[in-house]
Amino acid sequence: MRGGRVVRLRQGDYARETRYDEDPFARAMAFADAGARWLHLVDLDAARIGGYTLLPLLARIVADGRLQVQTGGGVRTRQDVARMRDAGAARVVVGSLAVEEPACVGEWLAEFGADAITIALDVRLDDQGRWRPAVRGWTADAAQGLDACVDDFIARGLRHLLCTDIARDGMLSGPNTALYAELRARAPGVALQASGGVRDLADLRAARAAGCAGAVLGRALLEGRLDLAQALAC
């Protein structure tokens, strides 16, 4: 979501935006009609500047009763997490703050429960070929590498990890299965979510074979390239 509309960015670039439905609730209900049980909902405006704005939409979607919602964007404080949970979020996605203040987010994992928090590490390769998480709506790179971040949160009780290869996000180029296989080996007890590049059923099967517990579907669904009912059956 950006500016009240359903959008997709390419490689995390806010200047490369494609707009879709003007009615996000109707789109969510269409997903539910097709059999979806989970919705991944992101406030892209808040991801850059903080201040999650989707509470009314979140509450309305949850009130329908068919979708559990994993949602994030701009989560900066414990109060943000509490408000989103109170509005019905099944899982709150924490990205930038997890990288910048892991001890704080570790306290949230303990307080709200590991099933209530999804740590999102959105990564890209640096000049030395090392994976580094991006922060603040993907506008800056963290000093700490991906492996160190993952190890830190495993020690803090991490259960759900969403990892996006930014170079593949919104590009329909296939998921980075090599990256996910490495993460699976490093964190065998964590439910890993693939994000970025999924375009067809073969990609979903490849993500599952790499050890992913789930995959975020965006552009492929919004543009009708992938049938949701078939994806769920897969």
Please provide a written account of the structure:
This protein is an alpha/beta fold. It has a single domain (7-233), classed as TIM Barrel (Alpha-Beta Barrel), CATH 3.20.20.70. The protein has eleven helices and eleven strands. It has helices at residues 24-33, 44-49, 55-64, 78-86, 96-100, 102-112, 146-155, 177-186, 201-209, 219-222, 228-233; strands at 7-10, 13-19, 38-42, 68-72, 91-94, 117-125, 131-135, 140-141, 160-165, 191-195, 214-216. Strands 3, 4, 5, 6, 7, 8, 9, 10 and 11 form a nine-stranded mixed sheet that branches. A two-stranded antiparallel ribbon has the order 1-2. The chain is globular and about 40 Å long. The relative contact order is 0.12. The model has no long low-confidence stretch (mean pLDDT 92). GO terms for molecular function: isomerase activity. It catalyses: 1-(5-phospho-beta-D-ribosyl)-5-[(5-phospho-beta-D-ribosylamino)methylideneamino]imidazole-4-carboxamide = 5-[(5-phospho-1-deoxy-D-ribulos-1-ylimino)methylamino]-1-(5-phospho-beta-D-ribosyl)imidazole-4-carboxamide. It is found in: Cytoplasm. InterPro entries: Aldolase_TIM (IPR013785), His_biosynth (IPR006062), HisA/PriA (IPR023016), Isoase_HisA-like (IPR044524), RibuloseP-bd_barrel (IPR011060).
